[in-house]
Amino acid sequence: MSRKPGRTSQPLDDVSKAIIEQLQQDGRRSYAAIGKVVGLSEAAVRQRVQRLIESGVMQVVAVTDPLELGFARQAMVGVKVTGPLEPVADKIAEIDEVDYVVVTAGSFDLLVEIVCESDEHLLELISGQIRTVEGVAATETFMYLSLRKQTYSWGVR
């Protein structure tokens, strides 16, 4: 999910927050079941969810385990950039195997998560694609050995 630069967000009301929390717990929860919890009709929940999706506040997706789908390697790549960060981040985000790009403060300018089929595929992505992007000065790769926790239910504020 990407956040558009310059997007002004409207504060969410308590009902929208409650709907989001319900879907964070179970993305397949029915609109009728959510409606009972938040005090709206099924149709009203459906409309709210559609508005939340269209506004970019949330998306409803299937979260998968890449290893179970034939991807042998996941890695986080720290990227150091010379010059403006945003064009480099946007160019790297266009790479199909990249599923997460964030501009950071600290040792790296960008953190990039990638999912690959093999170590050879990982090498090609880093050497043949990421490092060839204009403005990339250096990379450091952190290969995932074991996923211990991944959650998307951080609630709403």
Automatic annotation (TrEMBL):
Keyword GTP-binding: no
Record InterPro entries: AsnC-type_HTH_dom (IPR000485), Dimeric_a/b-barrel (IPR011008), Tscrpt_reg_AsnC-like (IPR019888), Tscrpt_reg_AsnC/Lrp_C (IPR019887), Tscrpt_reg_HTH_AsnC-type_CS (IPR019885), WH-like_DNA-bd_sf (IPR036388), WH_DNA-bd_sf (IPR036390)
Record has Transcription regulation as a keyword: yes
Chain ranges of the HTH asnC-type domain: 12-72
Record keywords: DNA-binding, Transcription, Transcription regulation
Signal peptide from the UniProt entry: none
Parts forming coiled coils: none
PANTHER family reported for this sequence: LEUCINE-RESPONSIVE REGULATORY PROTEIN, TRANSCRIPTIONAL REGULATOR AZLB
The name this protein goes by in its record: Lrp/AsnC family transcriptional regulator
Organism: Nocardioides endophyticus
